[in-house]
Amino acid sequence: MRPRQTLLLGLLLLVPVLAFLFLFRFGNNRYALPTYLPDRVDSTQVGGEWQRDTVFHQVAPFQLPSSNGREVSSAELGKGLYIAQFFGVDEASPRVARQLLRVQEKFRHEPRVRLVTFVLNGAPNKTTALSQLAEQYGTIAGKWFFLTGAPDTLKRLTQQEFRLTADPKRLPGAVYTANIPVGRLLLVDNQRRVRGIYDGTDGREIDRLLTEVTVQLYDYEHPH
């Protein structure tokens, strides 16, 4: 091979390497999580032109009894983010709770990540039943909370705040998910917005949840 051809070939091979190094050093490749539960669309005037902006729902503050007898607030849960499960008498709920063990183990040492299981057919002050559930699924104190409350409180929380609906085919007085199918998990950020919905019975969906929690934490550390 002639020296000129050798030089040309070397340059052709060098260009993609240099491009990769440039993108690796200076590139800004970000993936933003979607936001769910839109409330309304507002119109604002910017520079003489009207722009439409979607306003997303924020889960209202709440405070519920936990498995250890004390009240746990949404402010405590939402310092970073939390994953919410809605536990009923359906067959899926225990399966989802077992899958949440993966999430707990993955973020065991990450204080910004919490898990909360809302026991929908429970009642206030039944700490023994909650404690048994928490013990059954191996929850870590301060990481994974089992919460319940009065039926009207749970109804408001699930229907108005998490946008679920009661299923009339279920037992009277209990609250169950209908719009969002049984077994779904919700990711709630530190602005009280729902940023992810996952099928908690599907291992691949749990993998996606683990990835998107990491993405959200990265976003906290590197704001736009």
Low-confidence stretches: 167-178
Between the first and last Cα atoms, what is the distance in angstroms?
Answer: 51 Å
DSSP helical segment count? 6
Strand content: 15-25%
Largest sheet: 5 strands, mixed
**Shape from CA axes?**
globular
Written as H for each helix and E for each strand, in order along the chain, the element string is HEEEEHEHEHEHEEH
- What is the arithmetic mean of pLDDT? 82
What class do helices, strands and sheet pairing give? alpha/beta
Strand order of the largest sheet: 7-6-5-8-9
Radius of gyration, CA atoms, in whole angstroms: 23 Å
Query: Helicity, in percent?
Result: 25-40%
Please count the beta strands (DSSP E, at least 2 residues each). 9
Q: How would you sum up this structure, described in words?
A:
This is SCO family protein. It comes from Hymenobacter negativus. InterPro entries: Thioredoxin-like_sf. With 224 residues, the protein is α/β, with parallel strands linked by helices. Helices cover 37% and strands 23% of the residues. The protein contains six helices and nine strands; from the N terminus they run αββββαβαβαβαββα. The chain has helices spanning 3-26, 74-77, 92-106, 127-136, 151-161, 203-221, and strands at 38-46, 49-56, 63-65, 71-73, 81-87, 113-119, 144-147, 184-188, 194-199. The strands form three sheets. It has a five-stranded mixed beta sheet. A hairpin with a 2-residue loop joins strand 1 (38-46) and strand 2 (49-56). Helix 3 (92-106) crosses helix 6 (203-221). The radius of gyration is 23 Å and the shape is globular. 29% of the residues are buried.
